Amino acid sequence: MKKHAGFTLTELLIVMVIAAILATIAVPSYREAVRRSDRRAAQSAMMEIANRERQVFVSNRAYQDEDELAFTLPTELEGKYTYTMTVDNDASPPTFTIDFDSVGAQAADGDLSLDSSGVKTPAEKW
Predict the structure, then answer these.
(1) 87-109 per-position pLDDT tens digit
(2) How far apart are CA 50 and CA 48, in angstroms?
(3) Distance CA 61, CA 53 (A)
């Protein structure tokens, strides 16, 4: 009797089923890890904007709006977040709010906000 080398169709199908099961577990976990990583990058960008605003305030006794501040969104956040800044220099004391709105695949993670008093929302995302 000759001995044949190779895999049977049954063995190949079993390996494919195992690979499919692992993929259904791994892909959502990977996507969630990417979302968290993008959220951390957005939070870092928000903190950078807040620090710039505080430096401007020390020098000018007023905050700058997003056009005057000339902040550009980092390339890793393009297509994932858009941001707006609201500045109220007429308030006592002057205030600012930074809002990062999630878009695209990041929309499942939700929006982020940071204000001049350090309040970060939603709290569970920080």
Answers:
(1) 999 988 899 999 999 999 899 99
(2) 5
(3) 10
The CB-based long-range contact list for 57-65 (8 Å cut-off, 24+ gap) reads: 57/94, 61/94, 62/89, 62/94, 63/87, 63/89, 63/94, 63/95, 63/96, 63/116
Report the run of H or E that residue 118 belongs to, with start and end: none
- In the chain, the amino acid numbered 87 is V
Give a yes or no: residue 116 inside a domain. yes
Q: CA distances (Å), 63 to each of 7, 44, 48, 67, 98, in order?
A: 70, 19, 14, 12, 12
Tokens of 40: 């951390």
The reply to whether 3 falls in a domain is no
CATH for 113? 3.30.1300.70
Nearest to 44 by CA among 68, 76, 70: 76
Band of residue 66 on the pLDDT scale cut at 50, 70, 90: confident
Average pLDDT over residues 53-68: 90
Q: Side chain identity at 84, as an amino acid letter?
A: T
pTM: 0.80
